[in-house]
Amino acid sequence: QVQLVEFGGGLVQPGGSLRLSCLAPGIEFSTFTMRWYRQAPGKQRELVAAVAPGDTTTYSDSVKGRFFISRDNSKHTMSLQMNSLKPEDTAAYYCNAWRDDYAGTYDYWGPGTQVTVSS
Q1: Less CB within 10 Å around the terminal CB: N or C of the chain?
Q2: Are 39 and 96 in contact (CB under 8 A)?
Q3: Long-range pairs of 47-56 with CB within 8 A, sequence gap ≥ 24
Q4: DSSP 8-state assignment for residue 43
Q5: pLDDT in tens, 70-90
Q6: 3-state DSSP: the chain helix, strand, coil percent, rounded to 5?
Q7: Which among 100, 88, 83 is positioned nearest to 20, based on CA atoms?
């Protein structure tokens, strides 16, 4: 059973920065699209950012220019640098590894880490 693990959540003041990391052991990491999702209380889970195997990145409009996603295939890790944080960024953040190929669809998640932006 593959289990991803997130690190780095916490409490930060508005305008501050926080860096999340995700460790993804036990998978062929370089072949997976890695994503960060978030879910605020009472809201649906939303895609925040993604980095493809070829390092192409995508971001939701709400975080574009403030958040930056990266991956290190040699360490099986993905990171999300979050700058200029706003109270509306408060949510549980989830790491996801996804791959769809001839062998099937692989979709793995971490348990989530809480980010709270408040003064």
Answers
A1: N
A2: no
A3: 48/80, 48/93, 49/80, 51/78
A4: S
A5: 999 999 999 999 999 999 999
A6: 10, 50, 40
A7: 83
